[in-house]
Amino acid sequence: MNHPTPLAELRKPLPEALLDALRAVFGERLSTTQAMREHHGRDESSYDPMPPDAVVFAQSTEEVAAAVKLCASHEVPIIPYGTGTSLEGHILALRGGVTIDLSQMNAVVAIHPQDLTATVQAGVTRKQLNAELRDTGLFFPIDPGADASLGGMAATRASGTNAVRYGTMRENTLMLTVVTADGRIIRTGSRAKKSSAGYDLTRVFVGSEGTLGIITEVTVRLYPQPEAISAAVCSFNTTADAVNAVIRTIQMGVPVARVEFLDENGVRSINAHDKLTLPEKPLLLFEFHGSDMGVAEQAQTVQEIAFEFNALGFEWATRPEDRSRLWQARHNAYFAMLQMRPGARAISTDCCVPISSLAECILDTQADCEHHGIIYSIIGHVGDGNFHVLLMVDPNDPEDVARAEGVNARMVGRALSMDGTCTGEHGVGLHKMDFLVQEHGEEAIDVMRTLKHALDPKNIMNPGKIIRW
Amino acid sequence: MNHPTPLAELRKPLPEALLDALRAVFGERLSTTQAMREHHGRDESSYDPMPPDAVVFAQSTEEVAAAVKLCASHEVPIIPYGTGTSLEGHILALRGGVTIDLSQMNAVVAIHPQDLTATVQAGVTRKQLNAELRDTGLFFPIDPGADASLGGMAATRASGTNAVRYGTMRENTLMLTVVTADGRIIRTGSRAKKSSAGYDLTRVFVGSEGTLGIITEVTVRLYPQPEAISAAVCSFNTTADAVNAVIRTIQMGVPVARVEFLDENGVRSINAHDKLTLPEKPLLLFEFHGSDMGVAEQAQTVQEIAFEFNALGFEWATRPEDRSRLWQARHNAYFAMLQMRPGARAISTDCCVPISSLAECILDTQADCEHHGIIYSIIGHVGDGNFHVLLMVDPNDPEDVARAEGVNARMVGRALSMDGTCTGEHGVGLHKMDFLVQEHGEEAIDVMRTLKHALDPKNIMNPGKIIRW
């Protein structure tokens, strides 16, 4: 459904010479089977698969560089692949080419607990890293829901539930190892917490979605595990009350670690999926990190704010297993929603607006969904002004799809008019290229294009994503 | 003293046609007097002045764009100028050209207190912004010491004393208005707190020191004024004890707002300059922000750590006037030190290392200074692993200068071997171009050069800074 022209005319069979050369490097770790290609031509977006012509499994930065050099010499597209959990078609092989699967680059290169840093290969997932950190008393906070690879998270500038307190991959990536479009290997920074040493190459590549180079190693910041953690759930009669409570919390500078919103449709879906009995009303999930005293103080403040906005209760989850169950349910919201309309696919939106406009943006979008009779739910990292509308559509009904895309487009227009962005954390991929132009304007897009042309003059790095050539 | 060749051969008189065209735009706000040119050819570095050929005072982004277009058509260098407080020769007119003084672009464009953001013209200084914010209950934390302009602070990726808690200009700049090298006006982002919308143009220009474009407006994050602030000073018998106390504080995740180190030379100089009576021993200055309870708790923890590392006392400064006096003295350290050796100039270094290496890096550098009989002091934003050695030299004694530069070069080598950076916050300018290559390696520098060539193909934007063409 709903895919752009796969540019079949630009799709040529891979040269035999390239395949032979790749086989010499990767041996059994090169695959051209249909099953393998299809697996790598699909993400969690609503797009139909677009398989690459071949897949190689890299085990080192040097192997990635070798693959890039070979593909560059044949001007064949290269697509990096981590866990395939992106939501905007990032890893679809629009023009064919070679997918470099980085999942076997899953070594934790170095943990420096005394410096609060870790360096990992791009294929290491966030859960793997946190498992390895368990004995150090430290943790890596960025949590986009999926157990994504750190390479992929850097490439999409991911964030998620903890970003309101700890920032996103933008703030938490100290440096990268990157293979450039001509196959050179560079290090983009140092392990110093701050630096004014020249152009910020780290942040040139963070969020570049594989279109400027391939991230093969990531050095991230770590944080001491908080002395105390507590969580609370809190229902409201109206979305406006729930969101306004969040806005007040942020404006008062309460350092909440997480604050998530689910509308009543979202609550209903996770109740069904995770056998919970939450009131089917707009819901906030809070998590507080700090000292025992600090957590108690934060919770007290937030509770007062919640009741000021007519909260129906404020229920604690201090036992780790209760907290895990709640957050797991929150993370399942996407899949839970899919079950609310069997056979449907979800179009996921991702606006982020300045916090004072959040309630208005959500309410207008809800009204638009209701007006068009769409099955939807809204979940959000509301502390950052970021929310997702999951629009459930029948992929075989073009009108249904068009209705949902209409809601999305109007919501993006609304967010941009509020000085917000079309994507808080999912990235642009294939799906938001037009929104990106709308957000930045032709002049700024042209500066982005200048960067792309300069760093990838043959247009072989994940071509056709983010901006048009 | 100590300046690179001013590239006199590249210095041509300004074409009369350009001067006429600039005069048509700027009228009386164009100056070619020697006094004005010399004023704009000097910063707070140890370099001799290198004046531009003309200075224009811009009052709008459109005027900046007009000046850039005119200079571009004549291939004449353009240098942006804020308050002239840079430390690495950033605003010296190495090849002549036109300096665009942005100090008259000093309007606060918009404050959105409910979103915790402010948009200002590039010439607004941090003190001016904070004065305008006073009634909102918010503040802008970045404090590099000098009352720098926000445009200049963004251009050098500045930080300073509060960065340990609030981050640097990298984390706190939401978006910029930039005039590109061909005179187009772009906006690099939105006011959303986070975004994955395409290449991170904001951070391409933050830290680019005027070499890729001219920043004309800056949108920054604001923070609620903390409910409580307290400060404390704490002396130690040894530098090692002081620095190790900081390392432990950071590793434990105590959210200190400021933690500054002064060695005994630094303390002696501010005692003399500010008529203080601090013990002439290695000193830490702390500031704590939070709730009454949170501040008390942080202070208690830090006090315990300090005594564990043999602190000689822990003295409170809770009255605002005492705090101001202490921080003013800290900010005066540079000028105080200048008075310790009349006629001398200061070479200021700016390493930043992963926190666990900080004590070793400082101690080895101290030993090196002592060994060479240099008059110096060390002050540092030690919570970030960042410190400055002020090396006092006789500008007319080449051997003296060479000795100091030797200390600097060895210290940078030491910091890089510890995975640190040659500049935590001052930037590269003229002074650290070789260090930058040493830090990043030729391949990464080449990627930076690719960006420069792509965004400034005529090499007219502050040419000769950061990287060699």
TrEMBL record, chains A, B:
Single biological process term from Gene Ontology: lactate catabolic process
Any single Pfam family the record assigns to this protein: FAD-oxidase_C
Molecular-function annotations in GO: D-lactate dehydrogenase (cytochrome) activity; D-lactate dehydrogenase (NAD+) activity; FAD binding
Cofactor(s) listed: FAD
InterPro entries linked: FAD-bd_oxidored_4_C, FAD-bd_PCMH, FAD-bd_PCMH-like_sf, FAD-bd_PCMH_sub2, FAD-linked_Oxase-like_C, Oxid_FAD_bind_N, Vanillyl_alc_oxidase_C-sub2
FAD-binding PCMH-type domain boundaries: 47-225
Enzyme class of the recorded protein, top EC level: oxidoreductase
Keywords of the record: FAD, Flavoprotein, Oxidoreductase, Transit peptide
Family statement drawn from the similarity comment of this UniProt entry: Belongs to the FAD-binding oxidoreductase/transferase type 4 family.
Name under which the protein is recorded: D-lactate dehydrogenase (cytochrome)
Organism: Noviherbaspirillum humi
